Amino acid sequence: MIQARFHDGRTAAAHTVDVAAADGTLSFAVAGEPFAWPIADLDVEELGDRARLARPGDAARLILSIKDWRTLAPSRGRRLRRRELRLIAGLTLAAAAVCAVVFIGVPVASGPLARATPAAYERRMGESFEAQIGLAFKPCAGAAGQQALQRLAGRLEQASDSPFELRARAVQASMANAFALPGGAILVTDDLIEMAESPDELAAVLAHEAAHVERRHVMQAVWRSLGLGLILDAVVGGGTGAGQQAVLLAGSITDLRYSRKAELEADSRGQALLNRAGLSSAGMGPFFRRLAEAAEGEGPKAAAVRELISTHPDTARRAALSDARARPGPPAFTSAEWAAIKAACPAEKPRRRLLPGFG
Ligand SMILES: [Zn+2]
Hints:
By secondary structure, the protein is an alpha+beta fold. It has two domains: 2-79, Pleckstrin-homology domain (PH domain)/Phosphotyrosine-binding domain (PTB) (PH-domain like, Roll), CATH 2.30.29.30; 88-342, no CATH class. It contains 16 helices and ten strands. It has a seven-stranded antiparallel β-sheet, covered by helices on one side. A three-stranded mixed β-sheet has the order 8-10-9. Helix 8 crosses helix 13 (284-296), helix 12 runs parallel beside helix 15 (315-325) and helix 13 (284-296) crosses helix 14. The radius of gyration is 28 Å and the shape is elongated. The site of zinc ion has 6 residues, from helix 8 and helix 12.
């Protein structure tokens, strides 16, 4: 015998009733009055783990657990809609993720979580990030320069094992920075382009970001930074804005932090990607030294660089390691491409509050 709650639909009173199923009919009695509801006629609404049963045109309803409903009417109970199946899958993933976060801790769990995050999900999330980043950072207008950056991104993508299409673009900001978004977008700011003194240096920055994408560091940073908020998005699916909400709550899209280990890995992997693409990997060391020098100066730009390299620890050491790994090769950009990149962003730009960055 299965218990259910019966509401007559006219009064607030609820009755606990024993329900039996036989010959395609649910039978139960309320205060001695017998009811017989043909199962095939019932409107069934599933609310979380409960099922609400009603007859068409009748305000009375029975509420019982979905498990019990399936026991009573196996043929109808199995007819789960796709949306519900997706929700169940999402909840299972969420439960697993919550376990990982609670028992292992977000920082430690973020690597495995990032690698387990389906690429399709990261891509979808990237679209949401990109929509927001478009509000904060306007792309630079120079089409030829943008194309040159994209050509290098394409070569790095081919050299990498990235599940994502790499898309690079120059944007206007008030700080020297480069960052990768979930799903393969790489943004380089005008100030960083200005700071780079050779194609090799800029290529090293892009390759470093490409390595973050390939190694799923971006997703890892997202997990570390957003943790449970992301799980919400996994559960409720795209388009609801919950993921975006989480991003907004986290304060800033660029406020994601990589671990020191991830940074060192991105340096060496980035240089390997350049080598595999048949390009020089000699620009990384010099660019790190340039960053270190720029941070010595006075004023807001120096402060912004200090902020940047504080998330990139041991700049001098990283420069030395990069020099040791450097291999010669042709530059990533022709002189015409380099000139186009240097001219891509307008010299005058609106000032805005600096967002702390990660590189
Ligand atoms: Zn980095």
